Amino acid sequence: MEGKRRRIVDNILVRKLEGFAPLSSEDKSFLNHILPQSRLVAPREDIVRQGLQIPCIHLVLDGFACRYKLLADGSRQICSFLVPGDMCSMGSFIVRTADHNIGALSLCQVIEIEPQIVLQMLARPAINRALWWISIVHEAVLREWLVNVSQRNAELRLAHLFCELHQRLEVVGLVRNNSFEVPLTQGELADTMGLTSVHVNRTLKSLRAQGLLEFKDKHATIHNIERLRDLCQFDPTYLHIHDNAPPVEDRFAKAS
Amino acid sequence: MEGKRRRIVDNILVRKLEGFAPLSSEDKSFLNHILPQSRLVAPREDIVRQGLQIPCIHLVLDGFACRYKLLADGSRQICSFLVPGDMCSMGSFIVRTADHNIGALSLCQVIEIEPQIVLQMLARPAINRALWWISIVHEAVLREWLVNVSQRNAELRLAHLFCELHQRLEVVGLVRNNSFEVPLTQGELADTMGLTSVHVNRTLKSLRAQGLLEFKDKHATIHNIERLRDLCQFDPTYLHIHDNAPPVEDRFAKAS
DNA sequence: CGTAAAATTGATCTGTCTCAACGTGGGTGG
DNA sequence: CCACCCACGTTGAGACAGATCAATTTTACG
């Protein structure tokens, strides 16, 4: 049981990192032999608290977590989702204080990666690059969310978000039959999209009526992903899957 | 003349990086001896084009540039500003294709840092950390912009943006007498804030009437920064100035 | 089961957009 | 050096997406 869980655990990190570039068998073996203790985090429980010291680097094995900020008037903005395979990258290593919260949305299984393990990861060039990649993709996703909230109406916003989740969950093998788990309430979707839960509800109803997107019982179903992508102009390039840049030496060769 | 410009040039990068943590004199000397050729970029000219290969890493010496995305309906979202001292960090090193454009807003003086120089920078631990810091702060700024656009009304949005610019420009010594250059049109502000230029105009008028913020002739003046910060709950923590995390060894000491 | 959170629907209100007109300043060609 | 021009700024009036307020139904869970 323990061994089985451990294997599942490491597989998802390898799978995630190989969404960038293939890893050598040594690197994979290294990742399969770090044996951090995983723990469960209850829904609504915080993993990182804004203003406090960042405890360590976390990897989500199962469940949805999110980064969020609270405003004085009580409103909340969810700034990103951490889905299985995602980790909060280098922040705790570089900077003293957290500028945002990270909290579990559903029951989460997370791993706390110890600082000395992170040093070992950084010492491996391919993993080092993959960590940079995570950071760059995170930035790109944030930009896309900014565009989403700033430029698109409620219908296109929701469509785009579900296209993104579909793509990200597919990479880690969590989409089956056009359907995937999204353990969010409509209120949480609202806090993500800068809408009210009332308006999210109405917009989901409209998308459902158009046969574009069903969201029920914490599961999303997209019958025709192409149609949904066309609607909101979803272009997955920004997720930079398998978008490894050529090494510096090759670029010299190309330049000369 | 050349020597003087070169000194000014390197000073701003050193100054920017020391906004994180002090550099050793060797590191500073290293940064003062990279001698990249700077070039001028005209307003509206692009430095990086979405979908194409990212040419190399750029450092802005003077002027404002921005990252932006275009949508099919012609609308534009400005996703971040590059002010003097800012560089577009590791993207070109890690990932093949640009997921956004970078373009000059005003006449810009920029430096193109060659890949092998970046390798040398990465080889120096303190500079390596500072590059991670840049990336982390970039992410934090994006989150704050998302909150801004998603949760605040036009008045608070503009107030918050100008508080941020005030803080960022002060770090590199570009604020004098509560006043600093912001070479943007109201239309560009609108594309930044997810508003129309008409509404930006009206909102600036209101802020001016309240004595909070003057924006005229490409210059912003904030007579009472405290009052403006209170209004929009600006908390500069997210810029992580001098927020260097303790090294891993110290954390072990603390833990034991 | 019972109870609270979440989803759903209706009616009304409002911040921001849209369309439209006019003012203004700086650059360019004659 | 003037006159035109065009981008930018400014102001007004009306329209609309989404918020707000409120009530009811459904679902999840102890």
Brief characterization of the structure:
Two copies of one chain form a homodimer. Chain A has 256 residues and is α+β, with helices and mostly antiparallel strands. The first copy, chain A, has helices spanning 2-17, 25-33, 91-94, 115-122, 125-151, 154-171, 186-193, 197-209, 225-232, 248-255, and strands at residues 38-41, 46-48, 57-62, 65-70, 76-82, 101-104, 108-113, 179-181, 214-216, 219-221.
Task: Please provide a written account of the structure.
The structure is a homodimer of 256-residue chains. Chain A has 256 residues and is α+β, with helices and mostly antiparallel strands. Helix content of chain A is 46%, strand content 18%. In chain A, the strands form 3 sheets. Chain A has a 4-stranded antiparallel β-sheet with strand order 2-6-4-5. The longest helix of chain A has 27 residues, at 125-151. The termini of chain A are far apart. Chains A and B meet through strand 5, helix 3, helix 4, helix 5 and helix 10 of A and strand 5, helix 3, helix 4, helix 5 and helix 10 of B. The first copy, chain A, binds a DNA duplex (30 and 30 nucleotides) through helix 8.
